[in-house]
Amino acid sequence: MGTSPWTASEVNLSHWLGTSVGLAIFVVSCLAAIANQLLLRHWDFPRLLGEISFVFFFSYFVDIFSGTFTRMGIMQLPAWGRLLLAITGIMIFCAAISLYQRANLVMHPNDDTTNILRFLYCHDNVVVAQLLTFTPPVIIILVCWLNTHQLYAVNWGTLFTLLFNGTLIGLADRFVWPQLHHNFRAKPAH
């Protein structure tokens, strides 16, 4: 029923380029990790290494879980059941993103992009930061669609994520373990 704009863009890239979804996730995420360094306006090598390490494992597990969900028959469920699972999953991962963005130990580059934009450029507005973070994958999806005339992993769940991801993260910041405060790290640019 669709996935986040980033994952949808990587699924579309994998179909266009004939690669695995995991490889597309890894490459796009490494590029996002480098873009984060530019947004920070200085090189933070431990952060870069942490983000690349994170996506190395994340991309591998996406391939495993997508295969597992297919074997479990999730894709054969009625549309309403898949939509319910998608929205529930989105709400759970927004709460999880809120927690690990606040802890800020090691993050997926796309989630760090949201944090960087939120605190350095968007005056702590997570909704605006999330929408800005979703701009590149929407462009990637459009470029892939123009080349393949097909859309993959884009559906109601993608729209729900575009519209509510930032709001759900903000709500989780306030209501899911509210004592955990943002531990955003960024050296001032010189």
Give the secondary structure arrangement, pairings included:
Layout: H1 5-17, H2 21-40, H3 45-71, H4 79-103, H5 109-121, H6 126-133, H7 135-148, H8 156-175
Task: Identify the notable features of this structure and list them briefly.
190 residues
How would you describe this structure to a colleague?
The chain is globular. The mean pLDDT is 94. It has 190 residues and is mostly helical. The chain has one domain (5-175). The protein has helices at 5-17, 21-40, 45-71, 79-103, 109-121, 126-133, 135-148, 156-175. The longest helix is centred in the first third of the chain and has 27 residues, at 45-71.
Brief account:
The chain has 190 residues and is mostly helical. It has helices at 5-17, 21-40, 45-71, 79-103, 109-121, 126-133, 135-148, 156-175. The protein has one domain.
What letter string, H or E per element, gives the SSE order? Answer: HHHHHHHH
Compute the CA-based radius of gyration.
Answer: 16 Å
Give the overall silhouette.
Answer: globular
Structural class: mainly alpha
Alpha plus pi helix count: 8
Can you give the helix content as a percent range? Answer: over 70%
- Regions with little confidence, pLDDT below 50 for 5+ residues: none
What multimeric state do the chains show? single chain
Q: How many structural units, i.e. domains?
A: 1
State the distance separating the first and last CA atoms. Answer: 45 Å
Q: How many β-strands, per DSSP? A: 0
Q: Mean pLDDT score, rounded?
A: 94
DSSP strand content: under 5%
Biggest sheet record: none
